[in-house]
Amino acid sequence: MEVLTLQLGHFANHVGAHFWNFQDEAAAQESEDSSIDHARLFHYSEAAKAVTWRPRLVAVDKQGALGGAGPAIETQAEAKEPDEGMWLGKLEVLRAAPVVKHAFQEDLEDEEMEEEVESERRGVKTWAEYDFRNTVRTWTDFLKVQLGSVYELPRVQHGISPFPFFFEGLEVQGREEEESILDLARRQTELCDQAEVVQAVYDMQDGFGGVADVVMRWAREELPKTGKFLMAVLPEEVPATDRPDPEMWGMSPQADVSTLALDYEASSWLSAAFSFARLQDCDIHAWVPTPVPLWSASSSMPQLERRNFYEASALPAAALDNALLPCRIRGLARPSQFLSQLAPSHRPCCGLLQALPLPAAPPPVLGQAPGGNDTLEAIFEAGAFVDLTGMKVMPLNPYTSVVLRSPEQRRLLNLTRTLPPLARKQSLVHHQPLILPVPFPQVFASSVSSDGSLEKGRDPGQEVESCPMVTRLHAAMGAGKCEALQRMSAVLKRTSVFAAMRQRYGVEADEIREVLEVVTDHMECAADSSDDDDDISE
């Protein structure tokens, strides 16, 4: 029962890098915790008496986005002379210097070599020593696992070529790029005994939404019985190279910067809307938007720089790892069955909250049953939950899954006591806290101890090594209570969009109206609930 992972887009690959770092740490603890089936996410092979583990992963990014992990650049001696063709003038060839590997990657390689020769030299350092915040250039700088099936779009150069809209991504259809990506996906499925789940993380604000559409339509045809979970990510700030031409929106290039910023934001939500609407035809079970601009504040991570791709991507990665933990635990229901019960049929939009670290249970109150005041609502009121989706929670939502990582396993009973039976069935407790890899951003408040406790604090220079945590994954309930869908709807109603989309991509007004209808329908009919129900603004 294997899980195929798709990472589509630059920010999505940052999320994926943190996610795989969590898996690497968990696999290293296998001797102490055999409840997790790592073979669901990893494929292993033996060669020359060495066992190699590779993620069941297909990652797609722009050309040149892999940094020091990209293809080796040919040296001057190996380089071929350019073909002068009909040019009779003098040619001067400028060759870029090879990208230097990040110090963390060099230490990982040294550590592997030292293990082979049984050296006692120190390998990997601390987070502070690497200064990841200021030295990470791309997601491969802090990735711990070895790259496998990675594809760089040859027509889109990282940092140079714009790739701002959903429709640019759709243009891979019928091209060599589509076949190359799908070949990698087929190769991964062939290594599975039975592909059970497709989990995808994709950039919804740009052309990678179109790439996700292409790949998920393939998954619908080739893997019809798999559970399909999509996390749609959007960074705090779109890189300048991915912003559309201002003239497309009827503005001069000299327009006011704040006005341009609004339209860059609008273009992101427009791409997200087309992606969301078209993906409804792909039989997905859960679609979780995690746009950084809509996150709530985190009292336990006050130093988090949301504009920093490396730091911001760590939170959705931790939430993804924890929320889908039931798909990796031995002896539970089939992962596809778990995903199929996360949301009502044809209503896949879900919210996701995360408490990292999880506060300790409050002391009992006289006259209350033990644990009676240890509730999800109390955790929210304490400011420990971060709402990653901008979606309000309905207390009695049956389409809810609470996943707790804590040695205090009984806490799950307290936290889910008031939830409906289906929600309690979908919930899980794991006895070990989340182990934090060295590259995980150390942006915790000083009150957080090295073991994730919120009571003791830690000494200066000491880093947080593990954290108890909880996630709450819930289907959208209540008309209009999904902020991401509201943003999409607002952009689709702008009259300037119609002319711009028709001029640039040949999109007719009827197509935009159809997308608006899909978005509006999901806003108004979410999970058969009403606005009159009590809700918690988490």
TrEMBL record:
<dbReference type="GO" id="GO:0005737">
    <property type="term" value="C:cytoplasm"/>
</dbReference>
<dbReference type="GO" id="GO:0007005">
    <property type="term" value="P:mitochondrion organization"/>
</dbReference>
<dbReference type="InterPro" id="IPR019605">
    <property type="entry name" value="Misato_II_tubulin-like"/>
</dbReference>
<protein>
    <recommendedName>
        <fullName>Misato Segment II tubulin-like domain-containing protein</fullName>
    </recommendedName>
</protein>
<dbReference type="InterPro" id="IPR036525">
    <property type="entry name" value="Tubulin/FtsZ_GTPase_sf"/>
</dbReference>
<feature type="domain" description="Misato Segment II tubulin-like">
    <location>
        <begin position="2"/>
        <end position="109"/>
    </location>
</feature>
<dbReference type="InterPro" id="IPR049942">
    <property type="entry name" value="DML1/Misato"/>
</dbReference>
<dbReference type="Pfam" id="PF10644">
    <property type="entry name" value="Misat_Tub_SegII"/>
</dbReference>
